[in-house]
Amino acid sequence: MAREAGKFGAVGGVAFAVDLLIFNLLLNAGSETLTAKTCSTIVATTLAFAGNRFWTWRHGDHTHLARQYTTFFVLNAIGLGIALACLAISHYGLGQIWPALQSPLADNIAGQLVGTAAGTIFRFWSYRKFVFRATVVPAEVPRTGSVTSPSPGPQ
């Protein structure tokens, strides 16, 4: 599991960098905060799916690509919801009380650091459990009638 977590972290690190770059480019271009985060996450998710499918869990069950891709994106949407909730609480909720929380720095901390960290914990668990399941080879079960107890010798 440590090896999987390491690979997952490497793929996630690249996806995070792409997410961060696109998010800030869109913010600087005048996009609305939640729209910018949604767009950056969609691009990063596509990259993360490819990295996780073909590297992190390449030995997993890959029989239904369309179902796997859809499940990945549904679970990632939940992870996005976690990040958006952190961002919305900071920017729109607490930002009404403390205007400094409506700055690009505060948005990056809430959405990119706190939200992504919380979403990543959920993603690792859910991808491993529902998307990239390990192929299970059933253990051989001894037959009940084939084992005989040794008979006592001649008496």
UniProtKB/TrEMBL annotation:
Q: Which Pfam families match?
A: GtrA_DPMS_TM (PF04138)
Any one GO CC term of the record: plasma membrane
Q: Which residues form the GtrA/DPMS transmembrane domain?
A: 7-132
Q: What's the chief localization of this chain? A: membrane
Q: Which GO terms describe its biological process?
A: polysaccharide biosynthetic process
- Which keywords appear in this protein's UniProt record, sorted alphabetically? Membrane, Transmembrane, Transmembrane helix
Location in or out of the cell: Membrane
Q: How does it sit in the membrane?
A: Multi-pass membrane protein
Q: Where are the transmembrane segments?
A: 7-27, 72-93, 105-125
* Similarity comment: Belongs to the GtrA family.
**Name of protein:** Polysaccharide synthesis protein GtrA
